[in-house]
């Protein structure tokens, strides 16, 4: 059928954030992979997902530090998920042996090879551990600068019109749809600050949806507030909701998706700027509708300074994530060398058989 790609964790201005639990709810079976770096967890999950893509919707949860790597794969129609349960996203079973099962890929290690490199492995682990706090500290400085950016537009915004516009958008998006049930809510990240910079899977997520709303605006022009109000109204009406948090500031929302009514509404401004491509696409321009005309021009010099300082913090934070990835690659090399991948292949095939039996 298809594949959906997203992040469930994030390297944010608030530190490492983990939304895994929200996405694992309502599953019958959860396989938690254990093992070290480089012993095939991501490849294992990719191969499992590819095995089901032609028949079912497969959800791929990408690593927030390296988007090319996977943290999990879920096939909701079959009621199962497979996740990387190693740090920093350690997953503790709620009903061990009944819902969650461990799959120990460490069984494929030739441990004597690892022991000969123990000092180098420990040294790399220590160096990696230093990189992430430095990245988060840089992002934290960046969010304070972003607050300065927002303040300019907040001080020039018409809040009465903002409330009126929000009510109109809520009515247009949700229409008369209502369900006599409790809504299911899944929390995810819209994008992620990775070793390659800002990455998102917006195009993949919005492509199959019929009703698409593109929110345009500036920092502080009310985009996240509108989405939060929309989320609350949708839950009151019993609609299932996919909530996508900002990968930089997890307290802010960037996208809301309603699968039952084939609808999505999202913040379509930089660094995730997308443009309408269908006649049915709708643009909601918060800057044009709510902010005093000429604000960009009036504060151009101040805005340029803020943007430059903000970009500097983001660039610094990403540089630490890049350094962590380089060190992680070196660490992986030791584990790849010590892994018997034919054993991993046997475990993969056995897991597929086990899933198919249920």
TrEMBL record:
Name of the protein this chain belongs to: Uncharacterized protein
Species annotation: [Clostridium] polysaccharolyticum
Superkingdom field: Bacteria
Gene3D superfamilies noted in UniProt: P-loop containing nucleotide triphosphate hydrolases
Lineage: Bacteria, Bacillati, Bacillota, Clostridia, Lachnospirales
